[in-house]
From TrEMBL, chains A, B:
Keywords: DNA-binding, Repressor. This is Transcriptional regulator, TetR family. The keyword Repressor applies. GO terms for molecular function: DNA binding. The keyword Repressor applies. Residues 33-52 bind DNA. Residues 10-70 form the HTH tetR-type domain. Gene3D superfamilies: Tetracycline Repressor, domain 2.
DNA sequence: ATTTATTTTGATCAGTCAATCAGATTTTAT
DNA sequence: ATAAAATCTGATTGACTGATCAAAATAAAT
């Protein structure tokens, strides 16, 4: 039986993870150092090594933390809707809204996904599979449900998931000044409706 | 008047840039070093410094090189089509095809865009504007043309450009094994047709 | 053939950083 | 109160890397 980590350990780990997120936003993956994380978290560098096996372990845990937060946020909202169509719109709305409300988290997510590599040196963005990624699974399930209930027409749910996720993801990369998130949301909802109905 | 770089200089610079692309694919932006680039290019580290001001200069020139290659490839094909609709389909086809034929170039492009930062530490992916990016401009022009000639319905060309570019870009990140690029291309063309017609 | 300019090498230097660890501090158990 | 365990610090170490530069090799000019 595994021993539960103490509350102090849990709190420290979260504190270090939050500092890592902030550091990723400020200086990026390439320049991040344990010293920088320690400074933001206001702890010593040694403490990071005490709570994590190494730097990679810190970043892996930060990635898991970020993915879970994002998924939980979206999943909770989607579950409030009943029809497949409403769920689909909620999925889009919430995904886009998350970018506004959790901007720094999104930046950190991008920084890790496009830099972290598996032990055999394969980048995460090449690994991340639409069959593993819970958000992809959720979106595909919504589309499949809609086809079952005849709300949606016939199309390949996997490919349409990729189109929608791509359209959502692309807006993350938009320059905030020249970009009207609300207008984009409306346009995307209109277009997705044309696609699936 | 500026002196033209000699042929040797031009050839060496391209050799180093091609080695950089290969290195980015192999070990990624984070781990890339002048020593690694030098090893792949089969030259000494000092030679890189002789032809480029610093490491950042190497990567900036590699980015420009990659963007130009991609744009030229797509632009040439698009210009062969006449109607706006044909151009739009060609744009999608060619963009997706480029990923297949120039896979390593695409990986290198991703590695740089999501890591390189401006002197004031702003990531390129936050800078890259749909108003500057030639590919975005090209796509928006196609959409605007189609609206002028009544081939397309009314919609916001900027936002729809983002949707289409997102759908194209997302497929770059797909695991090659479980992903049928040809089927995706067909689905995307179908969906984009529904969107713009 | 000789001088001058260009190109290339690889050793060296200075700086950075991840990881370690001996010892200090705090918490928990007895 | 005391011992044991857990938590934390910050200096140190060893490895790595970008950039420099003196000297060598090559090419071009005279």
């Amino acid at each position: 039986m595994e021993k539960q980590p103490s509350f102090i350990t849990q709190a420290r780990r979260e504190q270090i993870i939050e500092a890592t997120i902030k550091a990723l936003d400020e200086i990026g993956y390439k320049s991040i150092s344990l010293a920088k994380i320690a400074k933001i978290a206001k702890v010593s560098t040694g403490l990071i090594s005490y709570h994590f096996s190494d730097k990679e372990d810190v970043l892996n845990n930060t990635l898991v933390y970020l993915l879970k937060k994002q998924y939980d946020y979206i999943k909770e909202k989607v579950d409030e809707s009943k029809s497949a169509y409403d769920q689909l719109i909620t999925f889009i709305d919430t995904s886009l809204a998350y970018q506004g409300t959790h901007y720094v988290h999104n930046v950190a997510l991008i920084e890790i996904i496009f830099n972290a590599r598996t032990p055999d040196n394969i980048p995460y963005y090449k690994v991340s599979d639409d069959e593993e990624d819970p958000l992809y699974v959720l979106l595909q399930e919504i589309l499949q449900d809609g086809q079952k209930t005849k709300e949606f027409s016939t199309f390949d749910t996997k490919n349409v998931s990729i189109i929608i996720q791509g359209a959502i993801g692309e807006s993350m990369l938009m320059n905030q000044e020249n970009f009207n998130l609300e207008a984009y949301k409306n346009e995307l909802v209109t277009m997705v409706t044309k696609m699936v109905k």
